Amino acid sequence: MRIVDPFIKELEFEAVSIRKMLARVPEKDFGWKPHPKSMSMGQLASHVADTLSWVKLILEQPVMNMGEGEYKPWLATSTAELTAHFEKHLAEALAALDACSAADMRKKWALKSGDAVYMNEPRTTVMRGVIINHLIHHRGQLSVYLRLRDVPVPSIYGPSADEAS
Hints:
Layout: H1 5-23, H2 41-50, H3 53-60, E1 63-65, H4 79-98, H5 102-106, E2 108-113, E3 116-122, H6 123-148
Parallel strand pairs: 1-2
Antiparallel strand pairs: 2-3
Helix pairs in contact: 1-4, 1-6, 2-4, 2-6, 3-4, 3-6
C-alpha cells in the first residue's frame, strides 16, 4: 500500500457525508450566525467546500505565506455553487494525492505569515491535521448550524435524528 492510499480512502469516505451536508445548506440562511463571534452559515459552508483546495497547494509547494496574500477565503453565493466547488476540489485533491510519491509526502510543508512560521511539518502530518481533521471539525459545526435552523441533518458515521441510514 502506498503512503497516500489511506488519505485517498479517507477523503472518499468523508466526502459522502460532506456532500450531503453541503447540499442541505439553505441559501436563505447563508447570512445566519448562531452567535456574533461565529462565522455565518455561508462562510462556514464555503470553508468546508473550499478546504480541499489546499491539498494541491500543500503537495506542490513547499510553503504558503499568508502574509503575501496567497490565500483568499472563497465565499459561495448559492448551494449549487457550494457543492460544485467541493466536487471540483475533491477531484483535484484525489488526483494530486494519487500522483504524490512517498518521498514527497515526507517532505516538510510550511505555513507562514510574513516571517512568523505557524507550521513546518511533513506533508503527512499536514494532510491529517490541516486537511482531514480540520474538514471533519467544520463539518461537525455545520451539522449543528443545520440543526439550529431546523434543517434535517444527514447521517455521518451512523444514523442521525433525521436520517435512519
